[in-house]
Amino acid sequence: MTNLLSSLTAPAEDAEQASERASFWSRIAQQLADAIGQGVYRPGERLPSEHALAEQFGVNRHTIRRSLAHLDQRGLVHATQGRGTFVEAFAVDLALGKRSRHRQSLAQAGLRGGLQVMHAQEVAANADQALALQVTPDSPLLFLQVLGEGAGQPLHVSERYFPLPRFTGLAEIVQASGSITAAFAQLGVADYQRQESRISARLPSKEVARWLSQSSTRPVILVSSVNLDPQGVPIEFSMAWFAGDRVTLTVKHDEP
Amino acid sequence: MTNLLSSLTAPAEDAEQASERASFWSRIAQQLADAIGQGVYRPGERLPSEHALAEQFGVNRHTIRRSLAHLDQRGLVHATQGRGTFVEAFAVDLALGKRSRHRQSLAQAGLRGGLQVMHAQEVAANADQALALQVTPDSPLLFLQVLGEGAGQPLHVSERYFPLPRFTGLAEIVQASGSITAAFAQLGVADYQRQESRISARLPSKEVARWLSQSSTRPVILVSSVNLDPQGVPIEFSMAWFAGDRVTLTVKHDEP
DNA sequence: CGATATTTGTCCGTATGTATA
DNA sequence: GTATACATACGGACAAATATC
Fold this sequence. Notes:
The structure is a homodimer. Chain A has 9 helices and 10 strands. By secondary structure, chain A is of the alpha+beta class. The A-B interface holds A 73-75, 91, 93, 96-98, 193-203, 217-221, 242, 244-245, 247-255 and B 73-75, 91, 96-98, 193-203, 217-221, 242, 244-245, 247-255. Chain B binds a DNA duplex through helix 4.
């Protein structure tokens, strides 16, 4: 039973100086990250169990858990109870511009993807939504919860609000076509633009983390934006959570 | 010695059903978050020690540590060895547009802030930098490491590259004025625009976390961008790390 | 300045619960 | 149902950084 930590502990025990003074857990995390980087463990693959890693590295299982939690936070792996700890895949580049479209962005990246309506409901506008969409509070809105996929994995989830009755039936078209743009087109909005986007980084709620199939300790990018029709009338207010380290958003400031 | 967990454990012990089945650590984290939200613990204030909290809540210190780690990740508190665990302050809104300026953004938010040069050095352009700045590889560049402050705390750190010899002496002007815009102006660039920005969310390196005075388990927004002079010539390539939950970036897509 | 107490950080060991294969 | 694997929680010990006297 080889002790992979021997190369780590040896210097600290031989000489009291120990140039490598990092903690066990961080050194093990680094070694695992290197192994992933070198393809020893490939995306989608399962790592050895915590118990096995603890034996391999000659440390307690809790120390391994600390290392794995760190890698989970950094997005390299993700643990699921009862299944194991799996290596994550890599990032996708998405455009964030006044005229960017989800499907188009993915196509440019050589990927296929679409939108899936998880939930649709009619709601009454609250103050924020009313302000953003320039309607009176309590106006009827269509509320959609949408999952955006690409490269075979969830890239973002969003909550979107559309004024009613203008966009009655939009949910069904989005569900059928997998595209907001297509749904807008079918309802007479041939073009639209994003007004502004507000961006911050957060740790996701448990629910959002679950939808994105990621740990709730991995960051997400939160983007709030408003879309306008060609007449400048707001047609959509959305809050989207992007898997922070699976996605890079590119803002083009000089778009037409 | 009151056991603050009594209200938590009671239902689980009274009836086996226990509608609140969340873990101790998450419920304690929620209670602490609520206390912070209600101003029981104010920004900058120190929380009771882990030992004290463990006694208060009637749980093991490790359970408290789990709760605090969660709040640390979410940015509500930050722990420092030997000092304690402190409540963090709140977010600042920054503009991210083709013509946004750090100082101006802060002024709009009613805050004062400036840039501080942490490190300046002449370097040779690598492939990425050369491509972004449209110079030949190994061309001389001025490299600046800059800390951006606002509201009395670090908001972002950045690594910036400027072509030489055009911007010789820029570091000293930035240091003296606390402003990149002022330095550009003094060197004959009266105006400039951002070409594009690439945004992702990451967990910071230990170094970046230290500069931002934040935990390395709290997310940062990474923004890479290129600035152009009025003739469209690249004058700056930068990578900036924003304290993810102290900062909201707003992208204006319809700026002039 | 040094000595000491406090506080967080790391690590081990053990036990039990819960989700999945 | 059984076995496996991760999740939670307890207990103890010492190290490292900081505050305090």
